[in-house]
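Repro:
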Amino acid sequence: MKYCRLIHLPALLLLLVLPAGAADWPGFQGPNRSGVAPETNILTDWPDEGPAVLWSNDVGPGFGGAAIKDGRVYILDRNDIKGDRLGVYELSTGKAVWACDYDAPGRISYHGSRSTPMVTDSHAFTVGAFGQVTCFDLSTRKVAWQKHMDDFGAAPPKWAWSQSPLIVGDTVVIAPMAGDAGLVALKPATGEVVWKSPGIGREGYGSPRLMTLAGKEQIVTLTSTLVTGVDPETGKILWSYDGIPVKRGIPTPTDIGSNRVFITAGYNAGSALIEIQKQGDTFTAKEIHRDNEQGGQIHSTLLVDGHLYVNLNTNENLRRAPTPGLGCFDLTGKLLWTNDTPKLDRGAVLAVGKHLLTLGGEDGTLRLAKADPKGYRELASTKVFDADQKRNMIWAPMSFADGRLIVRSQNQLKCLDLRPNKSVQ
């Protein structure tokens, strides 16, 4: 069953407090899934007590980040006994606006939601941990339609469905990763299938991303066996790459320009740089560089001012000393530096302008650093979440819009004010 309820505040009042031209973060890793904010200014002269916490709300356990659209924050929450909930809050105050629930009871390893909603002007799309693909109508605040990954012959991944939908033109794209339905494009208004691609590899936990490579727009996806480029108009596989031993594909590949894609993964997979080439109608993926040692387990690599920044923590090195944390690569794939202090665990990294925000996955510390290819250069830090648990698992991606940062732990959703004043650059 589905339960949707209005909690408070008509849309008109929200428009009165929404700044004109405010930037949005409408889905996973921002407007183009780069993890880099479209805004460039950020508060850098943090007070001793840290940036102001504008609001804090209790949420259930989870690893899904927030989407921010038109002054509202959207998260997929979950209760193992009842099911999933789309929660909608005011960005400025944190007040609940409305929520919509659907039944999806059951327990999973690492409890909680995984998907970041994808929000358009009229709808929000989510993938639930048990495989429900749901479209919420923002005007009626109800479920418009729902599919399930097993509709396409897909088997659930070991750690549940952990991807976010992608809007491409007039379609919403999901990744069942089934033998004859690697990617599936659906009509946003009805859920009707537009196309299905052939298989793109075994189970993965990452989210597809739209890139333009070798003059062709394509959907790039990392699974546990392949990286593929798929034609967004037809679902045809244009190219594939299997050059790194991916055991469980999680981070979304990074478009670094010049028809090149940077790939990283944990579980001893390492990293690789490939170039997509086209000859006639044929696309190929050429390996340019490979690093067998350094890889990031969960979060995507960020391209900032011509260099790549990634959290290099993985299962294999988390308990070693020293433990690698943030790392920087150049655009040839060469590792320039790693930094073992501070320890990030599996925490997220986000970029605003030429600055990096990192959130410690265990200690709950938010840090601001300059994106500097010469080495780690921290500017400020503050404790955002308590570190009184052995395993905090603060792994959700962060979100940034209109100078506000949204962060999520296993029990709280917080908004920090990072709007700049007399920032020291």
